[in-house]
Specification:
251 residues, 2 strands, 80% helix, globular
Amino acid sequence: MEMLSIFQYSLIYNAFSFALAAMGAATLFLWFGRSQVSDHYKTAVTISGLVCAIATYHYLRIFESWEAAYQVKDGVLSATGVAFNDAYRYVDWLLTVPLLLVELVLVMRLSREETASKAKKLGFAAALMIILGYPGEIAADVPTRALWGTLSALPFLYIIWELYRGLGESIERQPANVRELIKKARLLTLASWGFYPIVFMAPYINISGGTAQTTIQVGYTIADLVAKAVFGIVIWMIAVQKSEAEKSGNH
């Protein structure tokens, strides 16, 4: 167990608690919000809610594991001997990260062939990125962490290329009232995802012990909130505006 101060333990504890509540609230908002979008975009909004629902479940398990790993008695923090299971994050990401890209593709309402092609390519690349990152996350030494982190970055770079070059022309064909919002959603995806490797590299700069644990757990939690809950609300906003535009005939 990493040595933590009471403050660090409480900070991580409260971050997990906040994320659990936020993901749950976003799930309900998105699923109830389906009634405000046309049938063309209900699947995208449903998947957005599903992403937050999966995250809610895993943050519950993360929160429970954190509680089981430490105890505070008479103002003193000590490890219980039960290992904190951080693998819940990677299980969550393996499910949700591909879905995040799929919902972005779906809300654009491309042709059936283009939607299927881009969803498959981006979904596969996202899953590969997570799979390659996990061995580095659990590595005990920096060189091994760096190796797997570099390998994980390759599909991430492909995703960046696909989002900008592959979807660039498609975005320009979107209704004028949502074009900038879709570009912001794309930028939000890249900005939030770009935060994960920054946190991943925390041990590279000689951050260790409780400081490393706190940086990684709080950093990943913030990135999750932006990439899932905030991004999901943006997808819903795009779906609402596109539904209104199509209803009024302004395609």
